From TrEMBL:
Pfam families: Acetyltransf_7. PANTHER family: AMINOALKYLPHOSPHONATE N-ACETYLTRANSFERASE-RELATED-RELATED. This is GNAT family N-acetyltransferase. Residues 9-159 form the N-acetyltransferase domain.
Length: 159
């Protein structure tokens, strides 16, 4: 897929992707833990309010869902003092490896930093460490919580 055919939109501007985003996020992280789909649709609904934080971004090629990333207040109960977070990063399998995940993650991080935050955070399994470091994320901690996650940050650059 060429970069020109893929765009990243705020879900508020492309609400017809709501069900696709909810489905992917639920299947990836919530369904395996027994949460109903309605749990995610409720959380995602909050990102549709005007001026809302959380924010949900959706990557799409025309009307085809490609991927998503969100900005939320907290993504790791072991680190309640850290906010905001880039979370729920997902790219559909046919589109992986084309730079779309990196693009959407960086757009989400920039959206968080544009709110005035000094830093934005992200957590991921250690197998994703090289991916996030290539994008410019700083590894702050390893082996956090029962999932032994890496915690990253990206700081605002003064211009």
């Amino acid at each position: 897929m060429s970069d020109s055919s893929m765009v990243v939109s705020d879900l508020r501007d492309a609400p017809h992707f709501f069900d696709a985003v909810a489905d992917r996020v639920w299947r990836a992280w919530w369904e395996p833990h027994g949460f109903p789909l309605e749990h995610i649709t409720g959380l995602l609904q909050a990102s549709l309010a005007d001026g809302a934080e959380p924010l949900c971004l959706v990557a799409h090629a025309g009307d085809r869902f490609v991927g998503t990333a969100s900005v939320i207040a907290s993504d790791l109960e072991e680190r309640p003092d850290l906010t905001p977070w880039v979370a729920a990063v997902w790219v559909d399998p046919p589109f992986r490896g084309a730079g779309i995940g990196g693009d959407i993650v960086l757009k989400a991080a920039q959206a968080a930093l544009d709110t005035g935050a000094e830093a934005v955070h992200l957590c991921a399994l250690s197998g994703k460490r090289a991916f996030y470091e290539r994008l410019g994320w700083q590894l702050d901690e390893t082996d956090v919580g029962e999932d032994r996650l890496d915690v990253f940050s990206m700081r605002r650059v003064e211009r």
